[in-house]
Amino acid sequence: MQRTAEIERNTLETRITVAINLDGAGDSQLDTGLPFLEHMLDKVARHGMIDLNILAKGDLHIDGHHTAEDIGITLGQAMAQAVGDKKGIRRYGHAYVPLDEALSRVVIDFSGSPGLDFHVDFPRASIGGFDTELFFEFFQGFVNHAGVTLHIDALRGRNAHHIAETVFKAFGRALRMALEPDPRMSGILPSTKGSL
Ligand SMILES: [Mn+2]
C-alpha cells in the first residue's frame, strides 16, 4: 500500500496544502513564503527520503507565526494519515547529526500520544528573516497532529544556521528510521497495548 496523503487546511489566517509520500525519493516542492523554513523542510525531505509538497499562503504581513505553526499542523495531519495503522513499522527513530561545530539529537516515537521536549537555544532571534522562536511552534503543531513523542536536543553549536540544519536533518533521519518497515514485524503492531 502506498504510504501517501494529501491534506488541505484552510483558515482565515492560512491556506495550506501538504502532499507526502513516506516511501519517496526525498524530493520536495515548497512554496510557503518562508524561505528559511523551506530550506529546513528540504532537509527533512532528503534525509527522511520522504517526498514533500507544501503550498502555503499565510498572513505574512502580520508575521510568520500562523504560517509556520499551521504548516506543522498540516504536515502532522498528513503524516498521521500516511502512516496509517502503524503495523510493521519500526516505530522508534533517532539520529545525531553534526554540522561543523553544531551537533543535535532527535528521538521520535510514533506513540499515538503527542509530546514535545524541545531543548534548542538559538544565539540569534532570526535566521534569514525567520523568527527562530517559530521552530518550536512548527514542531508543536506537527507533534500534536502526527501523534508522536519527539525529543529535540541541540547539544552544542555557535552558528544559528548550523544549529537549525542539524535539528531538521536529524528530524528527517529519525523519521526515516521510525517509519521504516521492520521485516520481522510485518503486519504486527509495534506495541503490546493493542493500538497506537
Ligand atoms: Mn544551509
Overview of this structure, please?
It is a single chain. The protein has 196 residues and is of the alpha+beta class. The mean pLDDT is 97. Helices cover 34% and strands 31% of the residues. The longest helix is centred in the C-terminal third of the chain and has 20 residues, at 160-179. Helix 1 (35-48) runs parallel beside helix 4 and helix 2 packs parallel to helix 3 (134-146). Strand 3 (28-31), helix 1 (35-48) and strand 4 (51-58) form a beta-alpha-beta unit. Strands 1-2-4-3 form a four-stranded mixed beta sheet, with helices on one face. A four-stranded mixed beta sheet has the order 5-6-10-7, covered by helices on one side. It has one domain: 2-Layer Sandwich (Ribosomal Protein S5, domain 2). It contains four helices and ten strands. Bound molecules: manganese (II) ion. Manganese (II) ion binds next to helix 4.
Low-pLDDT segments, ≥5 res: none
The backbone outline, from C-alpha atoms, is: globular
SSE pattern: EEEHEHEEEEEHEH
CATH homologous superfamily label = Imidazole glycerol phosphate dehydratase, domain 1
The rounded Rg comes to: 16 Å
Strand fraction: 25-35%
The distinct bound ligands, ions and cofactors come out as: manganese (II) ion
User: What strand line-up does the widest sheet have?
Assistant: 1-2-4-3
Please tell me the CATH architecture by its name: 2-Layer Sandwich
> How many DSSP helices?
4
Give the SSE layout.
Layout (H helix, E strand, L loop, with lengths): L3 E7 L3 E8 L6 E4 L3 H14 L2 E8 L6 H19 L8 E8 L2 E8 L5 E5 L6 E2 L2 E2 L2 H13 L2 E8 L3 H20 L17
Parallel strand pairs: 3-4, 7-10
Antiparallel strand pairs: 1-2, 2-4, 5-6, 6-10, 8-9
Helix pairs in contact: 1-4, 2-3
Bound molecules: manganese (II) ion.
